[in-house]
Write the structure tokens for this entry.
Amino acid sequence: MTLLYLDFDEPINADDIEKRIYNIASMVQINLELKAIHPTRRGHHVIVSAEWKAKPIPASYVAPKALYELTPAETVAMQLLLGSDPKREAFNLLRAHSLGDAPEFWRDRWNVLYAEKITE
């Protein structure tokens, strides 16, 4: 399972985001589930779980966990499709593209939501 972190710079309606999640999930064959909505100073942070839907495979085959997880680029694409701030996702795409052989510390931290904005 992959967690999607959406950043909205203005308030959102929970019903609207649930409809958007349902519509996008049905189009891209990815299971999406709303996990949390947190208000921020200007808008909302939304957390959604995501994984590819199972493909028909023999019952005896145990699919590796990675088969259902989204790649970093797929994660950015889904966050954009769900309406996350395009500027944030542009920077995320740059980070995702340059992960390569990055240490695991950075591979786990390329896609974050910040609790507060530092303006100094």
User: Anything to note?
Assistant: The two ends are 36 Å apart (CA to CA). The first helix runs from residue 14 to 28. The helical segments are 14-28, 72-81, 86-97, 104-107.
